[in-house]
Design brief:
Shape: globular
Number of domains: 1
Number of strands: 0
Strand content: under 5%
Radius of gyration: 20 Å
Distance between the termini: 32 Å
Helix content: over 70%
Largest sheet: none
Number of helices: 15
Structural class: mainly alpha
Order of helices and strands: HHHHHHHHHHHHHHH
Length: 354
Amino acid sequence: MAGFDIRLLPIFAFGLIGGFGAWLIGVPMPFLLGGVFGAACFVLCYERNGRQLPKLSRWIRLVFMSIIGAMIGSRFSPELLTLLPQFWISGLALIPFILLAHAGSYTIMRRLGGYEKLDAYFAALPGGIIDSTALAEQAGADLRIVTAQHFIRIIMVVSTVPLLFLFIQGDAVGSLGGQSMATSHYDAIDVLLLLSIALVGLFIGTLTNLPVSHMLGPLLLSLALSVGGVVEIDVPPWLGHVAQYMVGTALGAQFSGVSRQLLVRGFGMGLLSGTYMLCLAATFAIILVQFVPADFGAMFISFAAGGLAEMSLIALSLNFNPVVVALHHLVRILLTVWFGKVLLRRVFNLSPRR
C-alpha cells in the first residue's frame, strides 16, 4: 500500500469539523453524515479550478468497515439463533423487492436520465458499490456513471433515513451513546480483541473471496467466537463515533474526480431513484410487520437500499437489532449480484460491450 499523501489531511480535518458541527446542532448520525458533508465540501471546492486530489486508499474505509463487522458479530448471542428463522418471510420478500427496485430505477435512469441501456441497467441495481461496479466493468458499462449513481443513492439513503426518524420520533437519534451495542465496562483487552478480529476477518474474507468480504469476514469470525463462548467483548462507546467519522469521511472523499455535469445529473437521478426505493422499502415494511417479530423501523432499515456498513451503523444508533438488519442487507446484495447476472440477457436483452 502506497504511503499516505499529506494533501489528504484536509479531507480528514474537514470531515472532523463536519462531524462535530453536526453533533453540536443535533443531527442524527453526526459523525457519519457530518463527515460525508465536510469531506465532500472540501473535495468539491478544492477541485473547482481543475486541481486534482490524490485518491484516498480504499483500505481506509475497508478497515473501519471490518471493525463495524466485528462489532456487529460480537453482539450475536445464542438466543438470536432461535430468532432468525422467524424472519424467513422477510428474507423471501427481498426477491420481489429487488426486482421491483431494479425495474423502477432502471426506468428512471433510462426515461428521465437518458442513460444508455447498459449503463442504466447497472446504475439501477439495488446492490453495493463494489459488487455492482465489478459486474458493470465485466460487461463494459461506463464505470463513472455506475459508480457515481450508486454512491449518490447510498449517500441519499444514509442521509435521509436518520433524518426521517428524527422527524418521526421528535428527538435526535444516533449518538451511539446509550445504545445496547456499547458499554462503559470495556478495557484495553476488549479494544485489542475487536481490532484483532476485524483484521483477521478482513484477511480471511479477502482470501476466500467472500461477497462483501470486508464486512462479512470479520462479522462471521466475531459471530463464531461469540456464539461459541470463546470471547465476550464489551464494545467501547467511542469506537462507534470513530467508525462513523472514518466511514463518512471516506465516502465524502469519493466525490474526487467527479465532473460537475455528472454530479448534477447524478444527484437528480439519485434523488429520484433513492426516493422510489425508500417508498418501496416502507411499503414492504408495512406489510411484513404483520408476519415477523420486528416493528416498522427495524424492517424499514432492513430494506432501505443503503450500504451494508452504513445501514448497520444506523441500526446500531437507533437501537435496532444490528444482526437482523445486517443479514437482510447481506442477502439483498448477494441476490442482487445473482439476479444482475441472470437478468442481463434474459429479461433486459442486453449484451456486454466489446
